[in-house]
Structures are given as structure tokens and as C-alpha cells.
């Protein structure tokens, strides 16, 4: 009966008239976060849902990967595209198609708000114990993302995600954490009691210019994706999504 199952799937796809487009993503809050039940959530998943609801020619499907493996996975075509990436994070335009930026965010330094501390603390991060996420690229390190090199050159503890940075900081495992601005604001809205415990830098470690990256053999072209994003922008869908996550957008072109 296996051939009947395959035949049923074929006719279902034919009836839908859709082409499957795989979208890679790795834990990068608030864009991709793993739920307690093992599933995935975040802005990437919400945007995929909006793209699927806005048209019927393509079906966008989330495919999990890791921050370290995403380069090879995209190059090998294990998925067609990625959303919310910055070209400074080790990407080469020779092997992928890159959209104009359509969203901004960044990372700030945070520390425990102890007596006598002020913004001058963040002027000497090279002398402090840092906490970051393994596989991420940081401005203070000229966007170096290799964990071994970061640990060799800096006094840095590398953890698995943004919430682990806050937990490690509260446990005194480091002096300064480097954390995504949008995630930090959402976390503080959910845990307002922590606002007085944290000193947040006024300056950025880096500013993201977030783009879509597409494999040259992708099932969807860059102009088509831009068209769909433009339609979502005109309908106000993108604005609602960005606002829900406390992010700053630029016009989709």
C-alpha cells in the first residue's frame, strides 16, 4: 500500500498547486526559539505562517539547523533560504542571493546593577568576563564567530542561548552579557522585577541589518520573495509582526 500513500501525496500536492520552500533557522531569540514541547516558535515561524497565508503558489516550511552548521547546510541545499541574517556573520555573496535589509535590531551589553556601577563599565569590556552565545558573531570581536578563537582571545563564557546569558549573569558566572535587544526587552516585559537588577548599555555591540539569504537553486527566487514581502508590508502584516517583537523595520524593496 506504500505506492498508494505516495500517490495520495502526489495528488494532494497537485491539488494544492504549491511548491515547497524550506526555510532554515537556528535558536536565535526572538526569531527562533524552542518550545518546552520540543516545537519551534518565534518571528521566523510567524513570518513563514504569514507568507503561507498570503499566497498559494509556495508552501514555506521551517527546517531547524544550528548556528554553526547553517553555512554548509544552505550551501548544500538542505534548505532553500534563511530569514533574518546579517551579511557580517560570515556569509559570502558569491554563493548566495542576498536581499536588501528589511529589519533592524542589534545587541547591547548588560551587567548586574551594583552600587558604583554606571555606563563607564562598558568602556572596558576587554578587561571583564563576558558571556555570549556559542556560534554567534560579535562586534567587539570584529564579528569573529569561531568559539575556539573567541575563548582564546577573550575571557568569554559561551552558552546556548540568550536566556542562558541572563541566567549566567544572575549567577555571577560573568561580568557582562551580550544580548539581542529585542529579546532583552521582551524578557524584561515578562520579568519586570529584573529591570532594577540590570545595567543596560546605551551603546550597541552591533546593529543588525537583517536580510533574506537564498540558495541559487532555491525553489523560490529573490524577486518573488521580495514581491510577497512587499504585499505583506502593504497589508500592514509586517508592521504588526515587527511591533509584536519590539523590532524596527525599513521598507521592503
Automatic annotation (TrEMBL):
InterPro entries the UniProt entry points to: Solute-binding_3/MltF_N
Cross-referenced SUPFAM superfamilies: Periplasmic binding protein-like II
UniProt-recorded name of the protein: Transporter substrate-binding domain-containing protein
Domain Solute-binding protein family 3/N-terminal: 20-249
Superkingdom field: Bacteria
Amino acid at each position: 500500500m506504500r505506492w498508494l500513500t505516495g500517490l495520495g501525496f502526489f495528488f494532494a500536492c497537485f491539488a494544492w498547486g504549491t511548491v515547497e520552500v524550506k526555510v532554515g533557522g537556528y535558536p536565535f531569540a526572538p526569531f527562533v526559539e524552542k518550545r518546552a514541547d520540543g516545537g519551534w516558535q518565534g518571528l521566523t515561524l510567524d513570518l513563514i505562517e504569514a507568507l503561507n497565508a498570503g499566497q498559494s503558489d509556495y508552501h514555506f516550511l521551517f527546517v531547524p539547523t544550528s548556528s554553526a552548521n547553517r553555512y554548509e547546510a544552505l550551501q548544500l541545499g538542505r534548505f532553500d533560504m534563511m530569514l533574518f541574517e546579517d551579511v557580517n556573520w560570515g556569509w559570502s555573496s558569491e554563493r548566495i542571493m542576498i536581499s536588501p535589509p528589511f529589519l533592524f535590531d542589534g545587541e547591547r551589553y548588560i551587567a548586574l546593577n551594583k552600587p558604583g556601577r554606571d555606563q563607564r563599565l562598558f568602556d572596558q569590556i576587554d578587561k571583564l568576563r563576558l558571556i555570549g552565545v556559542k556560534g554567534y558573531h560579535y562586534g567587539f570581536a570584529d564579528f569573529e564567530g569561531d568559539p575556539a578563537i573567541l575563548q582564546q582571545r577573550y575571557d568569554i563564557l559561551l552558552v546556548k542561548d540568550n536566556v542562558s546569558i541572563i541566567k549566567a549573569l544572575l549567577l555571577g558566572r560573568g561580568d557582562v552579557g551580550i544580548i539581542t535587544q529585542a529579546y532583552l526587552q521582551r524578557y524584561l516585559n515578562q520579568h519586570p522585577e529584573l529591570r532594577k537588577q540590570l545595567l543596560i548599555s546605551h551603546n550597541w555591540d552591533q546593529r543588525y541589518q537583517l536580510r533574506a539569504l537564498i540558495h541559487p537553486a532555491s525553489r523560490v527566487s529573490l524577486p518573488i520573495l521580495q514581491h510577497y514581502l512587499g504585499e505583506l508590508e502593504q497589508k500592514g502584516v509586517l508592521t504588526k509582526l515587527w511591533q509584536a517583537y519590539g523590532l524596527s523595520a525599513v521598507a521592503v524593496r
